[in-house]
Amino acid sequence: MEKKKELLKPKNDIVFQSLFTQKNERITKNFISALMGENITKIEINTEKELYRERPEDKLGILDLEAEINDKEKVDIEVQLIDRKNLVERMLFYFSKLYASTIDKGEDYIGAKKVVIIAIIDYKLDLTKEIKEMETIWNIIERKNKNLMLTDKLELHIIELSKAKEEYRKNKTSKKAQWMMFINNPNEVEVQKIMKENKEIEEAVVVIKEMTEDEKLERLAFLRQKAIMDEKAIYAAGLDKGELRGKEEGIKQEKIETAKKMKAKNMDINTIIEITELTKEEIEKL
User: Fold this and answer.
1) How far apart are CA 274 and CA 278, in angstroms?
2) Neighbour tally for 254: CB within 10 Å
3) Per residue in 39-80, pLDDT tens?
4) pTM of the model
5) Contact partners, residue 98, CB within 8 Å, separation at least 6
6) If we measure between CA atoms, which residue out of 40, 203, 183, 163 comes closest to residue 171?
7) Contact 157/135 with Cβ under 8 angstroms?
8) What is the bridge-based pairing of β-strands 114-121 and 135-138?
9) Rounded distance, CA 31 to CA 25, Å?
10) What is the DSSP letter of 141?
């Protein structure tokens, strides 16, 4: 009997970005609605991935999923699989850029839209290690008067995939927990059960099955996963600065070699950027 092919995992950013698109608007709308806890009547998904790199060496700026919803707020959903010890700083960076982008030149500041940044992480966060809930939500509040919030235009969510299964077991009707189970691993038995209750997730699984049969996409997802595992190994090794720099240079060289091979096959430069995390300028020089 032929072994059943394992489905691609949406927490791989290549897969995530390919799934949640304007083409799959119904799935994307339901996913964001579940995370935001609000009904979405209108959604406009940003198709530009590399908006905010200001310097060639800047690693930030490739967005996983950014959309404007209901003509009143922007949401950016990022999947982070590696603990680079800068999660909060990354979230604030994305917030500042998106918030500034909601104001056209010459407009009054009061016209700025609300911006919600949602980070889905696949590692344990020291900041929330004592919290059992899967999600924490952060705003700016007054230090002494905790019920006094400065503004509702900034909202940061951190969702930990490691806590998703327990959250789902506590509340199997939670749409948010259901989606996180799917994002983490659509191959699990629990996701098969969820599909019977959640038609949008069932639809998403069908799309993932089609994506898994796409040899090119499967190869890209594999290369991205390899790069992630290599980088995780560096951080897990606990190396000193000199050793860490040497390892990072080695991985950078591997990325360059991968980019050369992809470029030789005339692959799209944006795809090469997503896989290798090299800048456009670096790739064009190869």
Assistant:
1) 8
2) 14
3) 999 999 987 755 444 433 344 446 789 999 999 999 999 999
4) 0.82
5) 66, 74, 76, 115, 117
6) 163
7) yes
8) unpaired
9) 10
10) B
